[in-house]
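pasting input
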Amino acid sequence: MAKITIRDVAREAGVSISTVSNALNDVDVLNPATKMHVLAVAERLNYVPNLNGKMLKSGKTMMLGFFTTSVSGPYFYKLIETMSRQCERHGYGLNVFVTKDKQVIMSNILGRRVDGVIIYEELKIDEHDIDVMEKDKIKTVFLDREFSNDTMGSVTFDSYTAGYEAAKYLIGLGHKRIAYISGVDTMFDSVQRREGYLAALREYGLPLDEDYIIQGYFEEDSTFNAIKAFIRVHGHKLPSAFLAGNDLSAMGCIEALKAHGYEVPGDVSVVGFDDVDIARYFSPPLTTVRNPIARQAILTVDHLVRMIQGKETGQSQTLTGELIVRGSSHVPPDHADQG
Amino acid sequence: MAKITIRDVAREAGVSISTVSNALNDVDVLNPATKMHVLAVAERLNYVPNLNGKMLKSGKTMMLGFFTTSVSGPYFYKLIETMSRQCERHGYGLNVFVTKDKQVIMSNILGRRVDGVIIYEELKIDEHDIDVMEKDKIKTVFLDREFSNDTMGSVTFDSYTAGYEAAKYLIGLGHKRIAYISGVDTMFDSVQRREGYLAALREYGLPLDEDYIIQGYFEEDSTFNAIKAFIRVHGHKLPSAFLAGNDLSAMGCIEALKAHGYEVPGDVSVVGFDDVDIARYFSPPLTTVRNPIARQAILTVDHLVRMIQGKETGQSQTLTGELIVRGSSHVPPDHADQG
DNA sequence: TAACCTTACTTTACCGACAACCTGAGACTT
DNA sequence: AAGTCTCAGGTTGTCGGTAAAGTAAGGTTA
């Protein structure tokens, strides 16, 4: 049996197609009896409207698109789940595109597969792409860069201040040699956190050692390996604290330190960023700067929906972190080389 | 400026719309010079075909839909990332729907928003829904149940054998009191693993203690809490081994044991399932049954694409696990209560 | 009772792309 | 010279909905 269309329902119910359309869409111009009858026939035939026809006519897909290069890690699933829920509240669906292919991205955006766009992370959307999207009035929210114009906004996390505050906290505890575990340099958050960290070191006159900036790629396992390598080289004179670019890195770092027999926080303190769900259950529980992911997700979807509805122009919103002190940080041990 | 359509390109290039269509879709009936000219005009106007029009006419969206209630945890992101990549290879996109609303799910499936469907987990897709989908010839692959008919297949993990083998391994080490940390009972994998575990206990004549089946919900934090509660009750006579329904549960369990001063594997052994990326970096590194997630993702997408292309009817494929012995399991300590 | 509303639909145009079929010009056949 | 091909592209119908405009029957008003 081929797919049932609105025409089949109309024929079966003995009415015109627009009557069926009106009945299904609750347009209040029909005789209640007719409406009932049509709905009953539609139900009996298991009729479900074809969304492609609907979309073409209305110009709306009722879908928001989330474009990202990766979904790895707790940050993403929290973000995606919360955004999905929030979309559903507004009657939208969320289409998650995990890809690095700019062709794919642009043809889905400009081809109107979605009514609004959420963009995260190092997607290499450049000035020209933004120009084109702006001309087409594509409603967009960026999560990884501050931006705003008539049809585009952003909801970002103030990573610079977060990095600064975390570093300042460690300095306040008495740490003088603090390493930073970085993500990749194309990641806005990673760079900002590092800048904040460097600013704090400068402010307190602590040495900026190039070697103390470690590439961890924001992942647990790659950080684990990076720290093991780092310990092999710097084992004789380890920093008394590591500031990790995110919680996953912090955990990987702690695992590596433990594997080499160091105690956290007894010998070394480790601080992360994000406060992902697991952070509090880790051993030791992580000291971290809380990134209000759920809030970011909700603000993003709300802002985008309001732009689509024409109720709002693009805004640049910034969320601030909150230092959560748990068990992975402590004053440095007496024997620590504080030079 | 309103959106550029194929008509605008046709007018600007001084040709008909079908000539534009033919030029863009590489239909080889045009004078090369005309084709070049049309493509140049399209490029200049930044023309991108509207996918809704395309989809309506062709009846194809070039999208596969992944329907799930959750994306939490390493299992999902590995699955999603691998499926996305594999879709891209076939020229498809992957639309991830995170929802529990069956209305939403069915209207997206039956409304033809996607060309093929991948379903995971306790979605409560019942016989009736399957009937309707079958009548509509919706190409579908299930990841959480074995199923096959003309248009529907499945790619599942043999969780029963995995559970059986893991339990047998612990029994072989000498463990006599083994607890199982379960997910929820609506989850096929969780139930199957538990059945395998119970079968092994029965086979070796070990006692089946109802109390030793713990609800951990397949999450790290809820397992952590569940095990803490369990220890409070059974602390005087703890099992010598825990078989956790997945790696996240195993980690939560280990964290809880450590928090109460137990050593793993010195005092208690813990075994998980999946072998997620982090498992090997955990301390202690997890003994686990490897679930070939990437393989499942690839087989799923390939199978679905072949069904869509009409090259294949629904098959029920099963993947088997592989026991990976690492540091979280050991022979039971002498003092363990082996009664 | 003619003009005018309502009510309750039906007819038809349209969204943007694609594709089946049509056409007009020149080349080739017989 | 009439008929037939081929080439290169144009015309038009179509996918499945929605919505603006049209209409027929009955009721209301002046």
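fyi Chain B has three domains: 6-49, 58-156+293-320, 159-292.
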